[in-house]
Amino acid sequence: MNISRSYINNSTVEVTIIPPIQERVKKTFERLEADFCKNERKIHRFPQGLRRWIGGEGDRYIVPTFVALGPYHHGKPHLQKTEELKHAAAHYLCMKSGRSVEEVYAKVLAVAGEARGCYDNDDNAVAQFSDDEFAEMMFLDGCFLLKYMSSDYGCSLLTNRMVLSTGLCILRDIMLLENQIPWLVLDALMSTFSIRMTVVHMFLEMIRSGFIGSFRKGDIGRWADENSRPPHLLGLARSYLIIGIGMPPHEEEGIVDGDGDGGTFSIASSAVELKEIGIRVTPSKEEWFTYMNLKTDKLALHLLGELSLTPFFLNDFTACWLVNMAALEACTATDPISDDGFIISSYLSLLAMLMDKEEDVHELRAKGLIHSFFSNKEMLAFFKGFERHLRLGSRYFTIIQQIEHYKRNKRASIVIHKLVYNNWRIIVKLVSIASVIVGIFKAILSLKRP
After folding, report:
1. Pfam families, from UniProt (predicted)?
2. For 315, phi and psi rounded to 5 degrees?
3. Cys-Cys with 190: which of 166, 195, 362, 440 at CB 3.0–4.6 Å?
């Protein structure tokens, strides 16, 4: 917007000249496009459209409870005590590495401008910090996070305050979408402290093993491209869960494309309903999360189908992790057709589809698909909270199409299975009665023989 100054009777009059609309819309588009190009690297706010529905009561899955990382929640009163721990962590890491605080801080200062560009600078929570204040925050937050992930118990003070006395609080906080710091800050600190990426991999593997109940052996660093830079820890954790050390691509095993017949399909097939029509829901033995696969005999020689899903342990931390990964997908996915941007969302939505009643939750527990201290009612409420609000990827729709294909092509088998499934007690009684009658007739016939 230009300002033109005119002079009338020795007085200055300012006249605002509005650029042509074509120029304004072009510049706006270019500005938004430049910002969007950084979308995958940005530290996003929790999507407003999802905040009310999946953010948890009192924003429990959005606002940190113990430590603020980055500017969005920095300075909140209930998080102030942890600020001292950040200074202690920075001092310990510098002392252990033989580097001065000034030397390490200089490394962070060199990337602080780029790091600031990863946040929305129009956000008041970011704009309130000067460049020096922002750089210091990145330095202290980065040191705190690295110290926590390193499993270094050489300092009793930090071990007690950061690990033993906080339970799962920090684990929840460091996986919040709004509580991330740019990976380039951690990268600068890791190179300065000579901390290898293997340390981060080991930390993520420990968390993953508690999440799905198995620890991978061998070179756990193989799973990711060492030359690629993740946006932040939450983004890295999501990649680690869904890629692992060998998850096949979409077209191979792990998710099978539909039969290409398209058509309409229903979206309501609970675990009990699937069991009724002959599809068993079973835990997968694969080592990556979000595995989903429906196996059926294309020659219709077998009655049962098998829907395999990754089993996992659900507690408050893993629930928080899943919510924030789904929120991250909502912020960063760019293709509404492909599944790649909505892998976590598709998995959660499929589980929600399988849970219509508490009876379905009990069935999934009995099959070993979900382990949790949550009650059936609590688990049902958690997953049904996702159902109407998450974006669905093609992985979800592929499984639904496969279920519908099964229903259409095995109608006779399904009728027989339903009859047996719903009346098995009566059938067992009839078989028992028939066995008794046959036994009586055999006894009578044996008495008549000479």
Report:
1. DUF247
2. -135, -170
3. 195
